[in-house]
Amino acid sequence: MVYVKWFFILAFWAVVLGFLHYTLPQHDIVRITDTYETRVDYGENSLFWASESSGMATEVPGRDVFFIQSRLTNGRPMIYRNEDTGWGWPPYFKFDSANLQADAADLRSTQDDPRWVVVRHYGWRNEFMSIYPNAVDVRLAEGPGERIIPWFNIVILTLLAAFVWGVWVRWRRFRRRRVDPVLEEMGDSVADFSDGVSRRGARLRRWWKNEPG
Question: For the whole model, what pTM was predicted?
Answer without folding.
Answer: 0.78
